[in-house]
Amino acid sequence: MADSSESNGNHGLVLNVEPEDNRNTSPLTSNVSFIVPFMQKLMAEVLGTYFLIFAGCASVVVNVNNEKVVSLPGISIVWGLAVMVLVYSLGHISGAHFNPAVTIAFATCKRFPLKQVPAYIIAQVFGSTMAAGTLRLLFSGTHDVFTGTSPQGSDLQAFVIEFIITFYLMFIISGVATDNRAIGELAGLAVGATVLLNVLFAGPVTGASMNPARSLGPAIVWDEYKGIWIYLTAPIIGAVSGAWAYNMVRYTDKPLREITKSASFLKCSCNSC
Q1: Residue 140: left (phi > 0), alpha (psi -120 to 50), or beta?
Q2: What is the mean pLDDT of residues 224-241?
Q3: What's the pLDDT score for residue 145?
Q4: pLDDT digits (tens, 9 = 90+) for 239-268
Q5: Measured in whole angstroms, how far is the alpha carbon of residue 154 from the centre of its chain?
Q6: What is the three-class DSSP state of 163?
Q7: Which residue ranges make up each domain of the chain?
Q8: Angle at Cα 135 formed by Cα 123 and Cα 81, nearest 5°?
Q9: Are residues 217 and 53 in contact, defined by beta-carbon separation less than 8 angstroms?
Q10: Helix (H, G, I), strand (E, B) or coil at 13
Q11: How far apart are CA 69 and CA 162, in angstroms?
Q12: Among 10, 72, 62, which Cα is nearest to 38's?
């Protein structure tokens, strides 16, 4: 996406996308064929992040309070499914970022308007904080449990793991969301599966955040900031690195296939894709 937008008579924003051969029609980008007012995009990010953090962290709370009945695989599945359904339900409205690291990574690659980044991040952190606050109200007293993320080993170990899993996540997102050689309709499934896989092996070590908003919201509500710098820096650096790594891998001088009609409802408004 280009970092320019125009306002229409309904005070909506059109993301004017510069022509590019390797663009996909995935719901993970904001390239939609209709005009969505910017406030609706922010509302979608708030609600999407809220439901993501509420569902994922609720699985952690229930697991702790009920003798590990959910288990690590169960928690991983909850996070993966939550991401998948939210991508399919809100991707065509806001791009379904729900993650400041993803938003920043897209902006550095000029696939998202730079001037909209601060508003998206505020919306994401607000949604995460509200979700964490709801969980604290529901599970208070003797059942109170911190649902944020904190390193179980050394800070270096946690930083490297968060960098790697976010790099991997953003690499996959870039593949299914920005390259029309990929099957864009399966973007939600691919990204959800990646989150599930990352939580399975990284969850016991770092909590598998991959998302500054996911860590910051609970940290604010529980006033627990252990290792928070790791979860604010490693995912952003990892996401930006993953996006640029895919940009290098995806380069080709061969003709790309035409976008199928079945995905035309997600086509951008520039008429050049």
Answers
A1: beta
A2: 96
A3: 82
A4: 999 999 998 988 765 544 433 333 333 333
A5: 26
A6: helix
A7: 5-16+27-251
A8: 70
A9: yes
A10: strand
A11: 26
A12: 10
CB 256 within 8 A of CB 181: yes
DSSP 259: P
Integer angstrom CA distances of residue 166 from 45, 102, 239: 19, 9, 5
Q: Report the alpha-carbon distance of residue 96 to residue 115 in Å, rounded.
A: 18
Q: What is the rounded CA–CA span in Å between residue 241 and residue 81?
A: 25
Residue 203 has pLDDT above 80, yes or no: yes
Domain covering 5-16+27-251: architecture: Up-down Bundle (1.20)
Tokens of 121: 């991040």
Residues in the chain: 273
Dist CA 158 CA 262 (whole Å): 42
Instruction: Tell me the per-residue pLDDT of 81-129, one tens digit each, with 9 for 90 and over.
Output: 999 999 999 999 999 999 999 999 999 999 999 999 999 999 999 999 9
**What phi, psi does 92 have (nearest 5°)?**
-80, -5
Q: Where are the alpha helices (DSSP H) in 8-154?
A: 38-65, 71-94, 100-108, 117-138
Q: What percent of the chain has pLDDT over 70?
A: 78
Cα separation, 101 vs 162, whole angstroms: 12
